[in-house]
Automatic annotation (TrEMBL), chain A:
Native organism: Blastococcus tunisiensis
Every DUF112 domain range: 18-440
Statement: the UniProt record of this protein carries the keyword Magnesium: no
TM regions (residue ranges): 12-38, 58-82, 107-130, 136-157, 164-182, 202-222, 317-340, 360-379, 386-406, 412-431, 438-459, 465-485
Superkingdom of origin: Bacteria
Residues in coiled coil: none
Keywords in alphabetical order: Membrane, Transmembrane, Transmembrane helix
Record carries keyword Protease: no
Pfam families: TctA
Protein name: TctA family transporter
Annotated InterPro entries: DUF112_TM (IPR002823)
From TrEMBL, chain B:
Coiled coil: none
Matching Pfam families: TctC
Name of the featured protein: Tripartite-type tricarboxylate transporter, receptor component TctC
SUPFAM superfamilies in UniProt: Periplasmic binding protein-like II (SSF53850)
Gene3D superfamilies: Bordetella uptake gene, domain 1, Periplasmic binding protein-like II
Provenance organism: Blastococcus tunisiensis
InterPro entries in alphabetical order: BUG (IPR005064), Bug_dom1 (IPR042100)
TrEMBL record, chain C:
Protein name: Tripartite tricarboxylate transporter TctB family protein
Pfam families linked to this entry: TctB (PF07331)
Segments crossing the lipid bilayer: 29-47, 59-79, 116-139, 151-169
Top-rank lineage group of the source organism: Bacteria
Amino acid sequence: MGEALLDSLSQVLQLQTLGLMLLGVAIGFVVGILPGLGGPVTLALMLPFTFGMEPVEAFAFLLGMLVVTSTTGDITSVLFGIPGEATSAAATLDGYPLTRRGQGGRALGAVLFSSALGSVFGAFVLAAMVPVIRPVVLALSAPEFFMLTLVGLTFVVALSGKKVLKGLLMAALGLLVALIGIDSQEGIPRYTMDEIYLWDGIPLVPLVVGLFGGAEVLQLMLSRSSIAGGAGEMPKRITGIGEGIRDTLRHWPVVLRASAIGSTIGMIPGLGGSVAQFIAYGQARQSSKNPEQFGKGAIDGVIASGAVNNAKDGGSLVPTIAFGIPGGAATAVLLSAFLIAGLDPGPEMLTTELDVTYSMVWIVVLANIVAVAAAFAFLRPLTRLTFISGPLLVPFLLLLLGLGAYSSSNSFGDVLVMLVAAAIGVACIRWDWPRVPFLLAVVLGGIAERYLFVSYSLFGWDWLLRPTVIGLAVVLLLVFVVPALRRRQARSRNAPVAEEVRS
Amino acid sequence: MTHRPLTALRRTGGAVVLVAALAACGQDADATGDAAAAKFYEGENLDFVVPYDAGGGYDVYARAMAPYLGECLGAEVVVRNEPGAGSLLATNTTAKAGPDERRIQITNSVGTTSAQIAGADGVMFDMSEFSIIGRVATAPDTVAVATDGRLTSFQDMIDSEETVRFAATGPGSNEYIAASVLSAIYGFPIEVVTGFGGSGEARLAVIAGNADAHASTWDSVLGPVESGEVEAVVVASDEPVELLPDTPVVTDFVPESDEGKELLDDLVALETLGRGLVAPPGLPEDQLAELREGFECATSNEDLIQELDQQQRPIDVLTGDEYLELLESVLDTSPEFAAVLKDSF
Amino acid sequence: MTTPETPTDTANPAAAERRTERRLPVADIVISLGLAALFGNAFWIATEWSVRAGLFPRMVTGVGLALALLHVVILLLRARTPVPVVEERVDADDEAEGDVEYVFAHAGGRAWAGSLAWVAAFFVGLYVAGLFVVAPLFALTYLRFSVRRPWVFSVAYAAVILAVLYLAFEVALQLPVPPGLFL
C-alpha cells in the first residue's frame, strides 16, 4: 500500500498533470464563487476536453476542479451571507455574523484552513477505506439513512435556541415544503398547485440562496452601511487570517469530528453534502463549550462547516470507484471520465488500477492545498469588500442572487422560489423566528419519508432490528441526553451566576 | 483534441480566457458566411435543451453533439439543462415553443411516449406533432441482477413463484415502466419498491441483496456490469446490444400467452424509440430540412462517432422521416398495452 | 415575543424597550394563525390522498396545526399574565440577527418602499429584458439615483459588470442566463 501511494504521488507530480490540475483548480475556484453554479455543470462542460488525456491527467483536471468548488463556495457564504452552493449554507450561520463584526478575515481563514484539513482527512479516509469499501457501503441501506435523517432532524430543537416552539413550527413548515412534489410511492402530485415546475419539489439552491442571501441584501439596501458596519472604519490592514488558522488548530477535535461526519455521509449515495453540513454543525454545537455562541459568530461552527464540506468529496468517490455507481451528479460525470479514460470502475480500481485510485487521493489533497493557498492571497482584497459602502455592493449581490437561483434549473421558476424564500427569510428576522430549523426540515423531510417507505418495503418492520439502526438509535439518544446532563451539571455548578443573569 | 471542431476549440479558448482573466475577448468573432440570410440557423444561437440535470446520459449525448451540430449548421449551439418532472417540463416547453424559436431538444422518447399513451398527468404534448429531426441513439432498458443473487438469469425471473422485487425511483420512471411491462408480458409476480433517490441508489440496493432486480437503460448498467457487481440478464430489444454481447434479448424468451406475445411486440417497438431529437411543432419545411441536414452531417462525422464510442455511448441514427413513422406506429398501440402502461403511472 | 436577556443586548435599544412594556405580540399571533390556516388547508388537501401518499402529509400538517394553535394559546396566556421568561437554552440566531432585525424594524416606510421597488424593478427587468440588459442598467440607475454616485463611477461600474458577465457566461462557459422575453 505504501509503495502504491508513493508511486501514485510521483504520477501526480508530473509536470503536465500538475499543470492540468492547476487549470482545473483555477476554473473550479471561479465557478465555486459564483452562487448556484455548482460542480456538476462545470464538470460536464469540461468533460469533452479530457479526450486524449491519460487517466491520471483527466482526474487531475476534473477532480481538481470539483473539490475546489466546495472550498470556494464558502467564501461568499462568509463574506456576503449568500451561500455559494447548497452545501455552504451552514458556513453562513456563523461566518457571516463574524464578518459583520469586522472579523471576516478570521472567519475566512478558519473556514478555508479547516476546509483544507477536512479534504485531507476525507482523502485519507478514502485511502484507508480501500480494503473495506465493499462491505461498509453494502452494510448501509435505507434504514440507516432514515435513522441519519432523524439524527439530523433532532438538531431542530438545538438550533432553534430558546424559541423552541417557534423552531418546531418552522420545522413543520419546512417539512410541508419538503412534501411539495410528486410522491415517490404512488406518483401523486402533492401541493404542486398544478404547476409542473413543482413536480420535482422545491429546488434547494434557490431556497438556500434566498433564505439567507435575500435578507442580507435587503438589509444592506435599507441600512446603507457596509457589511461590517458595526465594526467601524475600515482598518488599515486586514488582520485575523492567522488568527483563523490558529483557531482551527486549537479546535482540532471539531475538525476531526466534522470531517468524519462529512466523509461518512459523503459515501452514502442520496444524502450528500446538504445533509452532512447540518449534522456536523449541530454536532459541533452539541459538543461545544459555549453553544450559546452558535449562530452569533462561533468560530467552531465555522470550522465545522468548512471541514465537513470538503471531507465529503473524498467520501463521495467511494461508491463510484468501488461499484461504478455515482452518488450524485458530479460523480456521474466523473464516471463518464472513467469510461473515456478506458478505466472500469469496480474491484480493479482497488487492485490492478490501485495507483489511479491513490492518485485521486493525492489530487484531492494537492488541489485543496493549492486552492486554499491561492484563496489566502485573495483574502485581504475580498475582506476589504465588506468594509466598503454596502449599497455599492447591491447591484453585484442582486446579480449573484438572480444568477445563483436561475442556474439551478435554468428556469425563471427558480428565481421565484428564491424570492419567496427571501421573503420568508426577511419575515423570520423581522419577527424573530428561527430560519435554520426550516431549512433543516426542508433538506431532510423528503429524504426521511422516502427512506422510511423504502425501509418498510424492503424489510418490513425488521429494519428496526438491524444492528446499525440500533447503534444509530443509541447515538440519537445520546444527542438528547448528553447535553441535557451536561447542562444540568453546569447549572448546578454555576447556579448563583445564572440567578444573577435572570434578575 | 486536435480533431475537435472549431466551436470546441473556441470554447477551450474561452475557458482559458476566463482563467487568465479577460485576456483576449476578441477571439469570439463569429464565422458567419455570406449566405446567412438564406439559412434560419446560420450565425445564430441555437438552444440544445437537455430535459435532465447535467451529468446524465442525455447530457453526455447533447454535449458531445453540440459542437459538431454547430459546425454543420454554422450556428452557435448552446446546451441548456432544463430538468423537471422527469423530462416532462422541458418537453412541454418545447411543445409550446413557436417555430421561430431556435430550440431543439433531446427527448427520452420511451418515457414521454409512454406517458402520452398512458394519458399521464402533466403531458401537454403530442410526440408525433413535434418537428422530428431524428433519433440519436437507442436506449433499450436492461434488467440487471446482483452477480451472486437469488436470480441468475431472466428465465429464473420468468419462472419465479416468489415475488420479484424491482427497485425504482418512483412511478412513471422508465425503470418502473420496464419492470411492470415485463411482468405483464411473462406473468411473473413483481413488487416495485419505490422511493430511491436515484438509479445509482436503486442499483446499490440490488447489489446489497435488498432488492432482486433493477431495470434501466443499457448504457447506465454498463459501469456496474463491468465492475462485476451486477449481471445484465435481458435487454428489452430485438437485437443485441454490442457492448453487452452476452446478454440475451427479450425476444429470445417467448411468452406463454398470446396476449403476452402482442405486448412483447409493443414493448420492443416502444423501446426502439430511444433518445430522439426534436424541434418545436410546426416548423416550416425548409427550417426542418436545415436541421435534419445538420443532424445527418453531425452524426456522420467520424470524430463524433469515435468520441461517443469512447464514452461507451454509441449513436444509432434514424432519419427524421423514419423516426416519425416509428413514433406514429408506437402511438397507435393496442388498448391492452396502453392499459399496462397506465398501471405504471 | 421572547425577551433577549444576554448582557450584550442591553445595548440594543429595541430590546430594552420591549422589556419594559410587555404587550400583546400581535405579529407572532398573526403569523401563527396564518401558519395554522396553512397547515389546516394542507391537511384538508391531504385527506383526499391514499394512505401511502397521504400518511406523511397528514402527520406533518396535523402536528403543525396543533403546534401553531398551541403557540397562539401560549402567547395569549403569557400576554395576560406577564411572567418573566426563564432562560433555559440559549439562542442560536438571535444576537447575530439582532442588528439586522433592528434595521428591519426601524427602517422607515419610505426606505422599505424604495428598497423593495428597486428589488422588484431588478427582477421584473430580469424577466422582461434579460440579464445582459438589466444588470448594467440596474447598476447604472441604482448607483446614480439611489446611492447618488457620480455618473462616471456608475457608468464604469455598469460597464465592468457587463464585461464580466459577457466574458464569463457567454464567451467562456456558454452557460444559459435569463434571456428575457424578447430573445
